[in-house]
Backbone:
């Protein structure tokens, strides 16, 4: 995985993407997320695999543009969620702090 991420980062440098505007890179992230949604809607597993990979590539580049790396971002997110409690509601995990409470 390390070598693959380094390859994506080098590809990004070769294309000048590492110095591009992050806001434009984020638009690319959302475009690729849309392709994941389309793949799920069509139940197209090949398209889904490609779409997930494209999302990861665009996120690697977004992190790189902001002097971060994928591992740093993932570690930060995991540190936040590792002790999180909650429950599954209609197939979605809802963290405890977001569960509806009686406010009366």
Residues:
């Amino acid at each position: 995985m390390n070598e693959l991420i380094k390859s994506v980062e080098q590809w990004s440098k070769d294309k000048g993407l590492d110095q591009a505007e992050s806001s434009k890179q984020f638009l690319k992230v959302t475009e690729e997320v849309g392709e994941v949604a389309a793949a799920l809607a069509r139940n197209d597993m090949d398209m889904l695999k490609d779409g997930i990979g494209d999302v990861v590539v665009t996120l690697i580049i977004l992190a790189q543009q902001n002097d971060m790396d994928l591992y740093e971002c993932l570690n930060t997110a995991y540190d936040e969620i590792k002790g999180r409690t909650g429950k599954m509601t209609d197939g979605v995990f809802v963290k405890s702090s977001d569960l509806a409470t009686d406010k009366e």
